[in-house]
Amino acid sequence: MAAEKTSPGLVEVEKTSPEVSGMGHRMKRKEDSRFLQGRGNYVDDVNLPHMVYGQMVRSPYAHARIKSINTEAAKKLPGVLAIITGEDLAKANLAWMPTLFFDKQMVLATGKVLFQAQEVAFVVAEDRYIAADAAELVEVEYEELPVLVDPYKATDPASPILREDREEKSNHIFHWEVGDKAATDKAFADAAVKSKVHAISQRCHPAPLETCGCVADYNKATERFTIYLTSQAPHAHRTLFALVAGLPEQNIRVVSPDIGGGFGNKVPIYPGYVCAVVASLTLGVPVKWIETRSENLQSTGFARDYHMTAELAADKDGKIKAMRVKTLADHGAFNAAAQPTKFPAGLFSVCTGSYDYPAAFCEVDGVYTNKAPGGIAYRCSFRITEAAYLIERAVDVLALDLKMDPAELRRKNFIQPEKFPYATPLGWTYDSGNYEGALNKALEMVGYKELRKEQEEKRKKGELMGIGISSFTEAVGAGPAHAFDIAGIKMFDSAEIRIHPTGKAICRMGTKSQGQGHETTYAQIVAQELGIPAKDVIIEEGDTDTAPYGLGTYASRSTPTSGAATAMAARKIRDKARKIAAFLLEASEEDLIWEPGKFSVKGAPGKAKTIQEIAFAAYTNIPPGLEAGLEAINYYDPPNLTFPFGTYISVVDIDKGTGEVKVRKFVAVDDCGNVINPMIVEGQIHGGLTEGLAIAFMQEIGYDENGNVSGGTFMDYLVPTAVETPHWDTGLTCTPSPHHPFGAKGVGESPNVGSPAAFVNSVVDALSHLGVKHIDMPITPWKVWNILKDKGLTG
Amino acid sequence: MAKKELIHVKINGKDREAPAEPRLLLVHFIREQLGFTGTHVGCDTSNCGACTVILNGRSVKSCTVFAVQADGGEIMTVEGLPSNGALHPLQEGFKEEHGLQCGFCTPGMLMSSYALLQKNPTPSEEEIRWGISGNLCRCTGYQNIVKAVQYASKKMAQGGK
Amino acid sequence: MAVTIEKTFRVGEPADKVWAILSDPKKVALCVPGAQITEQVDDKTYKGAIKVKVGPSVTDFKGEVQVVRLDEHAHEIEILGKGQDVRGKGSASMKMTGKLRNVDGGTEVVSTSELNVVGILAQMGARVITEVSNIMFEQFVNNFKKQLQSPEEMNAEAAKPISGVGLAFSALKASFSRHDDKSDSSAESDSGKK
Questions:
Q1: Topology (CATH) of A43-145+211-259+266-299
Q2: Per-residue pLDDT tens over the stretch A16-46
Q3: Which end of chain B, N or C, is less packed with Cβ atoms under 10 Å?
Q4: CB-based contact (8 Å) between A141 and chain C?
Q5: A649 to chain C, minimum CA–CA distance in Å?
Q6: DSSP A565-595
Q7: Considering just the CA atoms, what is the radius of gyration of chain B in Å?
Q8: Of the listed A232, A298, A516, A524, which one is catalytic?
Q9: Is any Cβ of chain B less than 8 angstroms from the Cβ of A721?
Q10: C2 by DSSP, 3-state: which?
Q11: CATH topology for C2-177?
């Protein structure tokens, strides 16, 4: 699947030979070997001598005062080693811990509980079965309190105040606004057409197949603490453990071994980790804590829960003039959002989308409710999915109001290629884009004109078929130090490359793959930059003792940050290699020409030195004045975010009898600039689209009026199987990022960002002739059937 | 805690025995008592299939079988996929077709695919999708897994076992 | 999680005999599987306990039962029950009304319950709660009829709690099938509503 170059000349990457396997090659993955043979090393596979097991006791109530905790019966059970409660932690000042966003959360409940499944006590026992038995024997007496689950009622005077620990006795967390309110209001006042949509991005959960867990191992003899952790950001976690637990940072080693999927779920620090650390410190043996799936779904980082209203002002020909957005953000009991500190609503202000208009205003209010804390960025840059969903739904509603084709409305409003770098009315500078290129390719791949004809025919027969488009732009690669930090740590990232005498290499990065294929893709970057075959390059991530400091992998940031750092470090090595080559070839540096893998003398191509020969010389024949060795490290501060984009088109048929929506065809055209490994990019797209499908049609973490959570196990929180998942048709265009060392943008999250709107747009499109303008996700058969029943159409 | 019994199994071709209390799940027995950590636990309601192994010739979710039920039986886990020194055609197919990303569902997926191909050596795409519908994957969207199974089916038909 | 359950059943005895049992919470408790009245606080209020097993999950509720309304003339009773699990797994509250009607050959008992469950049990969903309630009600009816026929035997011991495993299987089976079982000849009808 060759990418069509739509903006040639911006950052060209010349393809290397298949033996070198640099960028653009569909190199098979180096990490596959161990996974295929069952030799992966996930946290639950870690088994240390004298290791014991931890198990949480959790609250069944969404809001209640704790009157007493009785651990006597549990302690008597043979094999139980310790039971930790909030009171115990409070003595060490650890009952509360800071969240990633200016709030704190209880590690173990003290005083009261604020959401169902909240952590109340931690039992440690010789094996996990005894730990589970003991947890059942812990008796907790609760006094139920009134429950708040409706975010719209959070600021009602009649609602209970949830956070007694905060100075301000209110359930309102923050108000954030951005944009020009006056200009926007004026544009709306003058507008010929105004359209509005209220869209809910429902609470869902990333549910990676491996749940969260750790093995906390305090070695009394060496005073070193090793924590095997399901962490997408091992260094940040190490620093946070040092700051929060008061442990000297040089004595903490965080090891993220193989991680079975992250999707944002493994970014926060969870109470289970802290309890395991405390238990290990106390008992002096390794403590393993692995949560169950129910615990994962009910208590760890949820995503979304944004209740959004968007208005678009346009002239009668469909030219958008302004956008106005008001959003209510439900953060659960604690604001544990994983967001850069200057952005309480993350990057939500990219909600102006792929369109060119001068005015916008956006406000977001965050509130507390009796639900699990969060929200994290689920396979998206912070709040990008919510933003992309909103604008793409709003544009479709405008198209309906104007009776205009949604593809044409988009085309009319796209930011044109020559306008980049483009400053949006809410403060972002998009690096590059060719939105019409992606749209055209997608329309062609799906056969749009024929589909519209088919739809017309089907409507005459009363059959329901819909086509939905989503032309999204997202912002990834956080981020430039002047604007981005998490808990104070700037969001640069790093790469360290060391070449051995025989010309092979080992590289370590500050990111951490959870399935994205870094062991292969980073090697391909090194291969591209230095001409060393990718198979000769070892990539390591995740051990904070050896890897250079980084902020981890999420928000599609690895390629934009550590990928860039890899290229920059490789170029430093190339600079030294040039000096060594000049010495070996007895030529001046300016007379040397580089091609991947060797330096040759201008005009004398026979006089050349390969990178392997140069590496050998770096240890055996070192030029005077130079240090031995051939290595470099780079900490990359990206000058800007990168802005991948694309157009997705969903085609659905609706069964009138059951309300079931079948995705007949789905075309995804992505543009992530220059591609490292097209095979891996395709795999990412397939996976992300499947997650988007689930969110659009199947998933919700819901709460009833008592705060009981529904969707707390895989019986109710549905993950698509191979049967529900349709075939995905993928395509690429290529608009390189002008500021990235090799023009790449990152792509892992685009499919989750762009697809929910495409799915929803296609279902609404199937029913729009009946007057339907919007349906909230998840669009279950029950929801659709009720709409059909309302319209008198159930077969 | 109830009295432990000594459970005897033949696992991946080797005779092994280890103690198990009556309620010990087979998946824990395999992972902890017998030391084969390739089989994974992904849920607590028997939905995800990450724990799939072959027991007495049939694919089972080992989280929903007690170790004592496997006493005297024969188990194959991903570590025991027949290979003649190289990779099994299924493992080769998953690598060639990029049928895995994080790798967590992969052992279970391989065992279900193995069982499928034993029963139906030339499945259609629909049959493959139904055949692996007991195995959840969050990373791949299944498309390349289907291709991997088709690859293996073709190779095994050509005599590569 | 709020669930409304309406049940109707018939017995061969006259209304007065039925009312004698139905209006006495101590006697009614003897018929509810796993339940017992432990103390009478005043003429309207009682302390009680009920043990409910769903699969391996055991919940021991301890709480209060209050007779809110007792109409001897119209044969109507309204009861409010509230309980908390002793180990802190959740709570439940119930408002139940019972009405008697003379019919050919005996008495018809109509009961409406609004049940609210909070905690672990609630996570199993309204489906399971309704089915568990259905099964408990079936047992209750059988025990109730036995008491009507031979009251001396019932006084001896409280009704045993229903078997956990059996209950779970029945609940699962029932929630999957289009279920219309009429397990004995007396007309029983119900409508389980959410």
A1: Aldehyde Oxidoreductase; domain 3 (3.90.1170)
A2: 999 999 999 999 999 999 999 999 999 999 9
A3: C
A4: yes
A5: 36
A6: HHHHHHHHHHHHHHHHHHHHHT--GGGEEEE
A7: 16
A8: A232
A9: yes
A10: strand
A11: Alpha-D-Glucose-1,6-Bisphosphate; Chain A, domain 4 (3.30.530)
